[in-house]
Amino acid sequence: MSAPVNSGYVQTNDPTKPRSDAAVPFRDIIPSPSHPRIAGIADHTALSWCESRRQIEAPAWLINRLDAKNLEKPYKGFTSDGKVREGLYNYAEDEGAPTEEAIARTNDLLKILSDEQKDQVHCGEVADDAFRLWSNPELYMNPGGLRLDECSSQVQTAIHAILKASSSPEGYEKILGCCLTNDFLGHLVNGKKVLNEHSFNFRLFGVPSTSTPWGYTFFGHHLCLAVVFLGKRMVIGPTFMGAEPDRIDEGPHAGLRLFRAEEMESLKLMQSLPKELQDKATLSKGMDGKSLAADRWNPFDERHLGGARQDNRIVPYEGCPVSEFPSDKQDMIINLFKAFNEYYPAAVLEHRLALFKKHLNETYFAWIGEFGDEDPYYYRIHSPVAFMELDFHCGIFLTNTTPARCHIHTINRLPNRGDYGKALLEQEGLRS
Question: Which intervals carry biased composition (Polar residues) (predicted)?
Fold first, then answer.
């Protein structure tokens, strides 16, 4: 079934050209309660909302694509040419991962769960296909694990303690920010039973241990994490982080704004490149389905190529080689890598950064769209060991029908079987 041409929620008076500067007035594009994007959402749970979306052709297409039955099997890995490059990651014996703290916090969770909840939260081993079963819409089509908004506040706090123990302080603040912004969206559209701070699933894989692999997934609307531990090493990836809108402007969290560095530093980089490098980086000035090839755009991923159910995707290198950048612009690429990966604890991030720098001469920077101060755009940083995307989107809940800077998606993948800790497991002879 071919991809639909729009999200299925458009009506004739939806704005097509909202302001898209860094301070976009998202309140101008909040839907009315009767708009098809949100009509009836106040009366729905996450499960019933998903079922109601199955009755609309476009979201039904997305739900089917994300259904567990359509998970790519066997897992091959995200590559540039269909061939996995072996031996790229070469994890050190001790990379400073906070494994003991993560184990302690996970055991704290297990102590307070009922026997039924323990059965629910354990979803297999990290090498299992089920570990790859994540998705980023609010559509709840694959129940499993613990759904936080169905749990007690004690369980919710314990799960967040695991997230905090696995992340840098800045990274956890970003993770929590995604949760709080999702709650703010629920407030804006009167849909708090579908969109809230805890409308996420936590699934545990393996048994927390300092000697055998284990991990967890945490995913829901605009936030997806796959985390693997093995000894003093850890892998976080793939990840999805996003926001609609990109900021909170009222209440106790007023002033929270996500992805500022990823957004503004990339724009500064593109604007400061010599024109010949700008031209070389630009894949397309147009951002819509008419400007891009059919396999490079759909109304839900838009320009993203590394989202859910893309584990085996082949994405060739495109754009401008970073090796052609002046040294100060190469430094800006490195700083963007740090921004995308700031959820790693500091010691682990140093290892990830060193590996990225090692392959900087094989790294490409690609851009779609214009790059004026108020323009929406897409960009990608792609190397043998990194694949980072930022994209500004049309509204799913907000009513803009062209990309605007108030709806942001970011994706971070580890090509050549780095995703899901596969390369780490294989280095230890645990190939799955």
Answer: 1-15
